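Provenance

Sequences were taken from public entries as deposited. Structures were produced by running a predictor on each sequence independently, with no templates supplied. The record for ATP adenylyltransferase from Prochlorococcus marinus is shown for reference.
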Amino acid sequence: MNQENYWIKSLSLSKNALENSSLKPINTNLEYLSTATNLIFEYRRVSSINFKFSTTFGPKENPFRPWDKRLQIDTIGNNHILILNKYPVQIGHMLLITRKWYPQDGWLNQTDWEALKAVEKDTSGLWFFNSGPKAGASQNHRHLQLLRRKILDISCPLESWYEGNQNINLCESSLLRRNICSAKRSIKNETAYDLHNTYIRLCDRIGLGAPDDSTKPNYPYNLLISPNWIGIIRRSKEYAYGFSLNALAFAGYLLGTNKSNNDWLNKNGPIKLLEEVVAD
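Predicted structure for ATP adenylyltransferase:
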């Protein structure tokens, strides 16, 4: 059983960070949206009228170099730091960042997967990664994100998409089927090398290319990683109808602001919204 020391420390650190204002949670109101196949999306509307998505991207406005030491949970190996997300929707939202600058839109490497596995041995949950601005990344300094989940909880509302490996529950959308693929994990016997190889295999399968053939993937993409599966989504753009959509949208979590077209969403549904931002 995981000790969850990182999770416990993140909660304690969050309490202090709230008191010194280094943590700025995003307040939301939760709603639920269903699809034709009875999948349920969680839709959170930002309740703060002053909240704005960041429009800056890249190392010139890099909050991770240096990172805010008040948000540091721990060092992970020689190359990574585990910190709190400064703007969480869920308290205890963690970021695994590289100590040195690496591009978000480059290939993930072996040391990234070693750091992820090191954290996962202690605290598990839903990992997600946005490969660049068109996939919903707000910063170009490499970072993976972790939302802690209890061992027996499902990782996300759309877990059934990825658990079956053939995405049988995506039958209502051939476009999403072409742009989402997944693989099962065997976390007890899996090494970082195994996980890295699964990532490379899925990238090739979905048409992103391979590190040996190109310096960057052919498309922007999202990663979702639970203890039982890994999923990859090929993307074309970040926004659709006023919604900023990152990897969490493909996990079943939508976030709306005062710029989001709720009338369109209520009429067309979340599946159509996801179809707007994947590759053709």
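Confidence is low (pLDDT under 50) at residues 54-59.
The chain has seven helices and 13 strands.
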